């Protein structure tokens, strides 16, 4: 299922691909969120990258690219940095 999340598929699209209900997909996503200790798909992707490729600079770059417009305007990113020690 993580593969489909990485591809950017919606819950409905993942359900169609796996011939499961949307509710089942939500349940499985919730379990992945708990396992990776994250609260959304973006954080899940970042944590998956960290576990597969622990190059923190690459992860930081990826995270910043998701919020580059907000960061460019001096705002805080919408996606919390899961690698940061600060809350």
In short:
This protein has 87 residues and is mostly helical.
Q: How do the strands and helices of this protein lay out in sequence?
A:
Layout: H1 2-6, H2 11-18, H3 22-36, H4 41-52, H5 56-66, H6 68-72
Helix pairs in contact: 2-3, 3-4, 4-5
Question: Describe it for me?
Answer:
There is one protein chain. With 87 residues, the protein is mainly α. The chain folds into 2 domains: 1-36, no CATH class; 39-82, no CATH class. The protein has 6 helices and no strands. The protein has helices spanning 2-6, 11-18, 22-36, 41-52, 56-66, 68-72. Helix 3 (22-36) crosses helix 4 (41-52).
Total number of beta strands: 0
Estimate the global geometry from the Cα principal axes: elongated
Q: Could you list the spans in which at least 5 consecutive residues all have pLDDT below 50?
A: none
Estimate the helix proportion, in percent.
55-70%
Largest sheet: none
Number of domains: 2
Structural class: mainly alpha
**Share in β-strands:** under 5%
Order of helices and strands: HHHHHH
Which radius of gyration do the C-alpha atoms yield?
14 Å
Distance between the termini: 29 Å
Average residue pLDDT: 80
How many DSSP helices? 6
Features:
mainly alpha; 2 domains; 87 residues; elongated; 0% strand; 6 helices
């Amino acid at each position: 299922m993580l593969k489909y999340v990485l591809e950017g598929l919606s819950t409905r699209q993942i359900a169609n691909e796996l011939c499961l209900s949307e509710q089942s997909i939500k349940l499985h996503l919730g379990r992945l969120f708990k396992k990776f200790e994250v609260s959304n798909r973006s954080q899940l992707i970042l944590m998956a990258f960290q576990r597969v490729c622990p190059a923190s600079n690459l992860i930081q770059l990826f995270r910043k690219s998701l919020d580059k417009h907000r960061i460019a305007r001096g705002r805080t990113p919408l996606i919390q940095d899961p690698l940061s020690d600060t809350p």
